[in-house]
Amino acid sequence: MRLAVVIPFFKTAYLGDTLCSIQGQTCRDFRLYFAADGVPIPPEILRPLRQGDWHSEPVIAEFPENLGRTNPARHWNRSIALTSEEWVWLFSDDDLMSSDCVAAFKGMVATAMAAGCSVLRFPTAVIDHEGAVLRESPPNPLSERWDQLAVARFVSHREFFIQNHVFRRQAWEKAGGFADLRSGFLSDEMSFARFARPGVLMTIPGGKVFWRQSGINLNSSNPAVVDLKWEAFFGYLHFLEKEVFPDDRVARRRHASMTLQWFVKAAANLGSRPSLTTFFRLLPLLLRICPAEFPWLFPAVLRLLSTSTHQAG
User: Fold this and answer.
1) How far, rounded to the nearest angstrom, does the alpha carbon of residue 108 sit from its chain's CA centroid?
2) CATH number at 3-212
3) Please, are residues 10 and 37 in contact by the beta-carbon 8 Å criterion?
């Protein structure tokens, strides 16, 4: 069983710490793939990549076009396409992994494969810009059906991190890669559910990923990006309708309602208002999937638009 650790590189601020945590693995039976997203690799980073004490020589790719700012999933997919290993861990350029992560994964993978599981995940903690732990993320179920995962964030308000998931490359290929939702918003939830389908996703009992809340994560309040996030959200509703609950109208409407409530509340908290053009263009899908929610949703969005416009003025 072979493992690829993939870093879709763009940010440099904490990259040195990230590489140290990867080099510090007690089990070093993996290959690192380092894929620069339209940015030069600093010499102080390139040197340890090429000359460091690695079990397998890292693969370094410098893509000329920057895709991550507007379409992270496309950069994730072209980075993963560099790999040939059976399992892939899409990590990041500013987070950390505990020294026993790879060993814990290796100890779990046989059980996972026997259960037909194609996606594994690590426990996670949130750290600040200095690496201090802010909180432990609530534990995930030890085993979870793929369709339960698809609605977990909205139903149970669970935290979700792309960096703590390891998946079979074959499942990624079968699903056509990470879902192309342009902004990257909700692409990981949709994709991991597809990768795990029709089976389960399992939690690794050891190891831990430290997700950095640094203030420089690639999120944006730019109106164009906000509109892309709203489009991604409606794309996720379409996913619930067509793939998760295609034959269960009651479950589809119930979960779509909870998803809508979660998203409108989150958008209001962030001031992430859609353009009227985007909202009305996507309205027919909303009416088809959950018509019962329209009476409260439409005024809520109008209030969001009104509040955001007033604050902007």
Assistant:
1) 22
2) 3.90.550.10
3) yes
Q: What pLDDT was estimated at residue 177?
A: 97
DSSP-derived letter for residue 292 is: G
Mean pLDDT, rounded, for 106-131: 95
Report in angstroms the alpha-carbon separations of 74 from 68, 132, 299: 7, 32, 35
Domain ranges of the chain: 3-212, 223-312
Per residue in 244-279, is it b (16+ CB within 10 Å) or e — as a string? bbeeeeeebbbbbbbbbebbbeebbeeebbbeeebb
d(CA 129, CA 298) in angstroms, rounded, equals 39
Here the tokens at position 12 are 């440099």
Please tell me the predicted confidence (pLDDT) of residue 271: 54
Residues 6+ apart with CB under 8 A from 39: 9, 10, 66
Rounded CA gap, 94 and 216, in Å?
10
Residues 6+ apart with CB under 8 A from 126: 133, 134, 135, 136, 137, 159, 210, 211, 212, 213
pLDDT band at residue 241, thresholds of 50, 70 and 90? Answer: confident
- Which residues share a beta bridge with 143? 202
Whether the pLDDT of residue 50 is over 80: the answer is yes
Compute the average pLDDT of residues 32-58: 90
Whether the bond between 198 and the residue before it is cis, its omega within 30 degrees of 0, is yes
- Give the mean model confidence (pLDDT) for residues 229-252: 79
Separation between Cα atoms, residue 264 and residue 301, nearest integer Å: 7
Residue 242 is classified by DSSP as I
